[in-house]
């Protein structure tokens, strides 16, 4: 597989997406990567492999192991640990970066070894994304979800850099609903005659 260094945010988003498939995040539904078919669907959704490449049980085990490594990197305590972990992910490429044309522009490329596994290719995609994030945006973009009921972590590559939740449409909505209900309860308690001793 050949990877171009035109957009580090792609690899960072894949890192986040992979971590969020884990059972410790998806407590209600469990592991999202349960078989070769679900792994294949994940990879195809993120454009990692051609749609006709099957994922094997061995691939599944290796990708799950990679998922744990990526979570550890994103949750690392400092930028040196993040960079070291991401650099280790690139070791599976077993080749050197080279300059080649991409859409008419000279661009850095990295190609994995011919015998590389599906997990190796995924590791290179993620490793370059994490390193690009540190170099361009800094280590403060590696975050834990602010939802008190979530164990998710993520890489924030948004322009504003204000993302608070690993899955804004899920965790963010859950927090907003909880905050709204808490405000309603306080408002009801503050109204005359509606407290615990009120006649209401």
From TrEMBL:
Signal peptide: none annotated. Residues 141-184 form the Zinc finger CGNR domain. InterPro entries: ABATE, ABATE_dom_sf, Znf_CGNR. This is CGNR zinc finger domain-containing protein.
């Amino acid at each position: 597989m050949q990877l171009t260094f035109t957009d580090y945010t792609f690899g960072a988003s894949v890192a986040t997406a992979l971590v969020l498939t884990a059972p410790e995040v998806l407590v209600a539904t469990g592991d999202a990567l349960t078989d070769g078919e679900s792994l294949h669907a994940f990879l195809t959704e993120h454009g990692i492999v051609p749609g006709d490449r099957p994922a094997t049980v061995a691939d599944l085990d290796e990708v799950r192991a990679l998922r744990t490594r990526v979570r550890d990197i994103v949750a690392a305590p400092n930028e040196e640990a993040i960079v070291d972990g991401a650099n280790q992910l690139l070791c599976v490429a077993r080749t050197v970066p080279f300059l080649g044309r991409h859409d008419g522009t000279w661009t850095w490329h990295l190609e994995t070894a011919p015998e590389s596994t599906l997990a190796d290719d995924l590791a290179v995609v993620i490793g370059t994304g994490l390193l690009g994030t540190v170099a361009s945006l800094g280590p403060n973009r590696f975050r834990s979800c602010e939802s008190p009921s979530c164990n998710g972590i993520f890489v924030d590559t948004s322009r504003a850099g204000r993302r608070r939740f690993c899955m804004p449409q899920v965790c963010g909505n859950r927090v907003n609903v909880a905050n709204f209900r808490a405000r309603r309860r306080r408002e009801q308690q503050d109204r005359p005659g509606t407290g615990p001793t009120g006649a209401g």
